[in-house]
Amino acid sequence: MTFKNILTAQEGHVATITINRPKQLNALNKETIEELHHALSAANDDENVGVVILTGAGEKSFVAGADIKEFADFSVEKGQELSAIGHEILFDFIEFMNKPVIAAINGFALGGGLELAMASHIRVASDNAKLGLPEVSLGVIPGYGGTQRLTQLVGSGKAFEMITTAGMIGAEEAKSWGLVNHVVSQEELMPLAEKIAHKIVQNSPNAIRAAIHAINANHIEGVDGFDVEIEEFGKCFGTPEFIEGTTAFIEKRKANFRK
What is the pTM of this model? Predict the structure, then answer.
């Protein structure tokens, strides 16, 4: 598939997807969301991909929100449909992928941009990053999972403050809140994301998939995460990767999970 709004690359087992709309500060429009879905879906199905790094073009912005011009005249029904489709094909899709997604936040991550980062499994930020959910200043609320994932990550008190004030916080404050894992300079951002990715791809792909499933179960209503962990733990024993991992440990060698 030919993309207009994103760039894709792969080095070894690490795929990088770059949102490439720098003149619009990489804002998410309908077409970009669809392209991201196709690229992420392909990476999720590709056995040669172990990790996805998601970032934005340039040094100013990861994603500076959604393209407001696209939905400024929407009705109630169209607004609900916009949110539901976005959840399904991008934000929830990322959260429940079999491969970890690392968001490399290189500047503004606002509105849908922060929601995209929060849907990712790991977040690293450049020291010039600014994060926020300013939707209430436009007469709407976050509609791509922001009210839920921000609360899960930082707690309801900080989520209430951040959403209702429509304010932005800097990268270091975001780190202190637990909203991002690491803060580095702009020059160090992609190397750090790649370093984390390379650590991940050395491990068992099946066990990583199982771990993502078990961790996500923690906040699914009506699901007991401990039960999911027990089930996934047991399933691992029936895989060739478990045999390779335990054999390598006993033989005092490095496991080779990607033969």
Answer: 0.96
